[in-house]
Amino acid sequence: MNRTTFKLLAAALLLAGVQQAFAQTPIHTEAGVKVGNTAKVDYKVDDIVQTQESGTADFVVDRLVNLKVTTTDTAEVAVVPDSNHTADTSTSKALRFAIQNLTNSAIGVTLAAANAATSTVSPFGHGDDIFNVGEGSGSFRIYLDADDDGVFEPGAADGAPITSIASIARESTVHVWVVADIPAVGGTAPNVHPVNDDVALVSLQATAVEPTTMTAITYKESTDANVDNAENQFDSIKGDQTPGVVGGESAYDGVDSAYSAYIIASAHIGVTKKSFVLWDPVNQTTNPKAIPGAKVLYCIEVSNDGSVAAADVTITDDIPGGTTYIANTVHVNEEYDTAMTCNTAAATAGTALDDVNDSAYSSGTVTTTVTSLAADKKTSTVFQVTIN
Amino acid sequence: MRRITKFRGFGWVLGAVVGVCVAGHAFAQAAAEGQLKLTNAVYQEVQVTGADGKVTRKLVPATRVAPGGEVIYEIEYANGGKRVATDVVISNPLPNELLFEDDSKTPATDMSVDHGKTYGKLAQLTVTGADGKPRPARTSDVTDLRWVIPSIAAGAKGKVSFRARVK
To answer: CB distance from B57 to chain A under 8 Å?
Structure first.
């Protein structure tokens, strides 16, 4: 490539509105630079200084193609099942990658995002890949963080989904977002995913191509032992010394990739247990005391502080020693917002359960189940006993 | 003895005319007298595996070299004149794009790390480090190489060479 071509590329970059500044002084000599070395000789004849002579040798700096893909995420990106990335475009739910062009000239890249194979080890150490995202109609989408502000702005500053970047300047870095639809909880074992804490690894792969034309690069040498003597031809040497993560990649292949990951946000369950004396033989319902013969209400409340529904929440409680269960007093209040008060009204709130038909009580244990407890909701089970 | 200074274009021609008019002085433009010629060529070293499996190295002319690649410069000098050339000094300022690596084949008489202002043995040279303090110069600090050859007989030739790496 000659210098004129570089100037045209620079103009094209400005037109595209993509700003790529050097992060630091370039490490490598720019491709296409002519390196001229001139040796000079001074000498005398008969003690008279002679005219200096010189000799020059030139070569042109070749293109060393190298790019590096990494994720800028420092932990899995927390999402909920059955979520559509086009409806939720928050930065906190998008995966982010850096594509570093280490080449000594501008290159283009073609991009591909994909699921990792099940059991692929997660870079974040919280469990390995277990489910796939972005399948079916909600396929992967890659966006360029065009204004490089770290804020996911699809349809606005970050534009429309892309499959390539026309040009990344020499020794510069760009950032891209990857989003995908998260599937719903579903299926029977083994296909029950995703559930809480499940991880889905996503790879972003970048392949170096000729800038702007996006045609494949014709490489001359595959290792750093670069020698090529083709005149008037822009050669390329592959400089990537380590393979990326996607299967089939190798060192010196002009391709690099990295993983990031989604994690299904966990439901966070908290349990509180309270009791309330409803009645005693002496005071009846006026300030009843916990004396033998008194009726006591036990209230067990479960809350989900997480961001995803908890499935099959089962409350199990043994009848306390020194008391006798009062038959068919189990009530379940399935799902509500505000923490309950364990009082007389709570004794009959919600749904009454039958000991036998609903399996609510058996052999000294109260058991109730709600099939789903949504995020930020509570559920409670109450039952009554008599103090022996 | 007046040393001819090269002027560009018209000025140079004027100087030569003046030189010829003053008789008795031998000027370098008189081609027959002890004239040295320099030729400079740049190579890369490749490993060649022979049919017998033996690996040898050979030099090929370098036309395109990627960053990190090593080049070898060979500077040949020849005395095509009839008189011995003396006080010969071959100097080579290194291009900015190169890092000096090695001169062990034909060691330079001395080197400079300050673009030719001063010369010395590399082991004795110092540069200012990143912390502002002086530190011993390394091969990567070298800016100029210099070979001093006391005399080159008429008809004789020779070669100096060095290795450098592309930044």
So the answer is: no
